[in-house]
What we know:
heterodimer, A: 373 residues, alpha+beta, Cytochrome-c3 Hydrogenase, chain B, three-stranded antiparallel beta sheet, 16 helices, B: 159 residues, Alpha-Beta Plaits, two-stranded antiparallel ribbon, 3 helices, 7 strands, elongated, binds iron/sulfur cluster
Amino acid sequence: MVEEIQKTIDTEEEYTINMGPQHPSTHGVLRFVVSLKGELVKNVQPHCGYIHRGIEKMCEKITYPQIIHLTDRMDYLSAHINNAAVCLTVENALEIEMPERVKYIRTIIEELSRIASHQLWWCAFGMDLGGLTCFFYGLRDREKILDIFEESTGGRLIQSYNCPGGLMNDIHPNFQQKVKDFIKYFRKVLPEYDQLLTGNVIFQERAKKVGYISKEEAINFGLTGPSGRGSGFACDVRKRAPYHMYGKVDFKEVLYTEGDTLARYKVRIDEMWESMKIIEQLIDNIPAGDYAVKMKPIIKLPEGEYFQRVESARGEFDVFIISDGNKNPYRIKFRSPNLVNLTAINAMSKDHKIADLVAISGSLDLVIPCMDR
Amino acid sequence: MNIIGYITDIFKGVISLLKGMKVTGSYFFRPWTVVTQKYPENRKKLEMYERMKGEIVMPHNAKNEHKCTGCGICELNCPNGSIEIITFQLVSEDGKKKRAIDKHIYRIGMCTFCGLCVKTCPSKALSFAPNFEHAVFSRERLTKILNKEGSVLEKGVEG
Ligand code: SF4
Ligand code: SF4
């Protein structure tokens, strides 16, 4: 019996191997079951759920302000954006208008998190493809953003800086100056990223024409964020359904049509430039005012269904709340961009070498805790 | 592919590699750009940001007085039960009964540093402290009692 199964798995045609759950290139506990024919990938079966914590279920037991700190722990690289999504949903449900100051600060910190997330992605992606130097340079620059976060919010990776009704505390007096210094510094350093990795012949060979996905397929799979925009799918929620200050600032939606790993890479590099542009437009004009509106000590949403879309660093992050009028949600659902992006990996990696699977999964920028929740 | 294309590809490749090496090389000759910190050695000079969420503390003044009235709002707001308040009835000289704090138990091992207890405390009795070295040898030591021995409620703070 065992031999028979062995035979069907290890035929001369195809054999099956496990990549993960503890594989350095998946950056988390994700397991791919890969069918190979020689070195060519024939089928990839992702298995997730290794760090499922039941966050959605936990949210049903706790109050709205307490939910915020759990969303931090989903997509930890865009923690602030996830926080803001839940806060926006609650605020819209209660029909509270946020002070301008809150909107400005939230937008600036969201863009800073986006830069920090793309930096970390850049260094991890470079390292996956064999460029260890990238890892040091990316982290060095990310450290500066984390310092800015730490000074104002108290947290580095996960900030819990938002609360329904505004912010936990006001920004630090040094905040504006430090952000401006960082932008000045990073404008000088970002071209180095290109010199170091983008132009590199080894990188180019490994990224160009690898993991192609057409625009039609990208839409069918629901690819969002940089992964979708690399295929020419204009899916930036900041443009389509503006929230916070995004309707009023001038920035470009980065689109590439090649649809390969290199295109997804370039989208992220260009997005860092765009994020800096957004921050520069806002940082000098933060209006004075309150950093939070006074909320009732116990927040109860009126009965109904509430929905909010935001653009996290990895794609469209959605929050859907069903309230039955109590202080905790009846049901809460998060749409994780990572889980949806992962579904496309089979189509992307067909007939590529197994080493390219590392590049492809890296180019999707998967954060596993967000996938499993 | 013809032979000329092949050779130009090789040269282009080498040039792209050299470009990258120029970046790393330029840092090699600029040692002042190094940002690495030597952590355990620089412990004494290390300055953390004042808002850093390292642990929850209850500030006491010079007369060993704190501001906690024992209302239990922080316990109610903590999402994961890191805080436990134990109170007792304090009988003052004129015979009035009043609630006072016996133990403010804080389990740092469970705390997620969400900041809700600090934010919601009505008498601002709690705050974050920038201490980050929490490694201990036994799990029991992660449970702390925040109010100091013999401390009392500060005058003028009403519960
Ligand atoms: S710390 Fe503050 S919220 Fe907690 S029991 Fe004391 S007074 Fe109440
Ligand atoms: S910071 Fe949050 S988790 Fe920690 S004790 Fe306070 S309320 Fe509880």
